[in-house]
Amino acid sequence: MENTIRTIIVDDEPLARKGLSIRLKQFEEIELVAQCSNGEEALDIIREMQPRLVFLDIQMPGMTGFEVLSKLSQETEELPIIVFVTAYDQYALKAFEVHALDYLLKPVDDERLAECLEKIRGHISSESQSDNQTRLVNMMAQLTGADSETILRNLADGQPLTVKEYSQYISVKDVGETTRIPVKDVIWVDAAGDYMCVHCDDGQTHILRKTMKQLEQELDPKQFVRVHHSVLVNNSAVKKVLTLSSGEYVIQLSNEHEIRVSRSYRDKVRALFL
């Protein structure tokens, strides 16, 4: 069956595992892939099988259900859906504090289990819609050059999204003349007060009377990336990214010039080049 929910049951009581597994058979989308009798076994199975849903007992010898979830949270951000199953209602508040989707009291009756499955379906549907929106926004950001907030605001307001066209030249004005520099020839740009130094592959440097913010809005973000609050580099001119012992990055350009990446732009550089 398509769109099955890979599921495991974790409980130290054999009868509790058997009873829940029998009740889950009435739900066609549930694919029970494993049953575990303790926390350590559950961790190994979850790591190996990557289930979408875990019915997790709280009171177990050796490792509680809360400890299992805590260890998983330290290992990955993509946790399975957790439904705690226990005979003790005093854990309910803590269960929701650790972001469990639901909390079932033993013995689990069919009506309450059906309510839980309905909640699980709604959660999965909501996640799917969120993932689709994220992919759409990222795609539109690449096409339009707009940031995510602007795209979401325009979608909410029903405003059209237009593909931004970026200039293929930078115009540098001097006394009595204007020099048009092909964008593809620019290696990097750095700020000097209210002026920009445009460094080209022919070794020339041109002085541009613009701010970094103004120039960044005119250049294609897929071609030029900010690596420092005062430096833009042409992606195609990046020859190497060096990692220092301190964890800092240094970008080496095609002309052997080196630029240190500032702390606030490390993640962006890592995503683009490493």
If you had to describe this structure to a student in words, what would you say it looks like?
The structure is a single chain. The protein has 274 residues and is of the alpha/beta class. The chain has helices spanning 14-24, 39-49, 65-75, 92-97, 110-144, 148-157, 212-218, 266-273, and strands at residues 5-10, 30-36, 53-57, 81-86, 102-105, 169-174, 177-182, 186-192, 195-200, 205-208, 224-228, 231-234, 238-243, 249-253, 258-260. The strands form four sheets. A five-stranded parallel β-sheet has the order 2-1-3-4-5, with helices on both faces. A five-stranded antiparallel β-sheet has the order 10-9-8-12-11. Strands 13-14-15 form a three-stranded antiparallel β-sheet, covered by helices on one side. The radius of gyration is 28 Å and the shape is elongated.
In short:
The protein is an alpha/beta fold. Helix content is 36%, strand content 29%. Strand 6 and strand 7 (177-182) form a beta hairpin.
Helix content: 25-40%
Mean pLDDT level: 87
Q: What is the general shape?
A: elongated
Tally of contiguous helical segments: 8
Which percent range describes the beta-strand content? Answer: 25-35%
Examine the secondary-structure arrangement and name the CATH architecture of the largest domain: Beta Barrel
Major sheet: order of its strands? 2-1-3-4-5
Quickly give the structural class: alpha/beta
CATH fold-level name of the largest domain: OB fold (Dihydrolipoamide Acetyltransferase, E2P)
